[in-house]
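quick one
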Amino acid sequence: MIRTRVIATAAKAPEQVITNEDLSKIVDTSDEWISQRTGIKERHISAGENTSALVIDVAKQLLEKTEVPGESIDLIVVASVTPDYGTPSLACMVQKEIGAKNAVAFDVVAACSGFMFALSTADKYIKSGMFENAIVIGGETLSKIVDWTDRATCVLFGDGAGGAYVEKSQEAGVVHENLGSAGELYDILTEGYTNCSNAFNDIPAEIDSKWYVNMNGREVFKFATKNVVRSMKRVMEEAQVDRDEIKYIVPHQANVRIVEVVSKKLGIPMEKFYMNMERYGNTSSASIPMALNELNERGLLERGDKIMLSGFGGGMTWGTMLIEW
Ligand code: COA
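structure w/ coenzyme A:
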């Protein structure tokens, strides 16, 4: 059976670190409130580098690690809600910088589930036999679309990128997945709204408050716990894998309290959930691949291990993937 196997992972965060203490100087908040409600202590914030700089860095690292030349890459899929441009896609910018002149390159948008949707897309192209390999990246500079005067949202997010080089394998790889969308709930988490203005109508082309991240935190919390639990259960049931066989779960790094609820509802101990949101905050589509890369770089994964990646995000969307490492 053809499978899509993760051969290498990489991540990149901006150098600048902003602590909870730093945030308390610009909005009415405290380290205590942020730590207790979210588990986040600090986040990396761009000092000017745009999303393309982060995702290109990740792509270059992946080629270095695998020694695969750029021209041998078949597919580049980047997930982001904070690209540099409307067009070109980030994937096309990556393509140029790594010399992947034979690749097909495009972006996908599924907010914090973005990496799951991107990896799922690459998996289907590889399983169909159309492509042999792919670079899949999630990358964001959320700092440019966060309202830095809104304490309810600005404390949650960070910037970064993470990704994987995947290729066709007969041995291991993506075993099973569950993706989902609940568009009827789209307005509980939005960002980047632009209004329609043109030369013939008297509509001011102004950036209004809907440009920034707007979120109903409690509704997102409810959505996340319900759907992540359901999605992970479904993947384990359909793949006939017992929860005890799972070595690690890499959850979307939004909030430690969400992970605690998921852990309790699934009866899977917290030690199995790999988390680094304490140091990076919620980096949206970058969060899962950044955490996966850390798990990998720390040497905690062995070939044959079963792991699950699971995320949720704007749209609303969710995605879970069971991978044999
Ligand atoms: N510092 C201090 N106080 C804050 C604050 C901050 N940064 N942000 C909000 N507050 C205040 C609120 O104003 C409110 O005050 P009030 O009771 O006087 O009105 C109080 O804290 C409680 O606010 P609430 O929004 O009800 O808190 P909460 O317990 O729901 O926690 C979240 C807020 C955002 C941490 C929580 O809802 C959450 O984690 N939601 C999921 C968000 C998420 O995962 N988003 C990413 C999606 S990919």
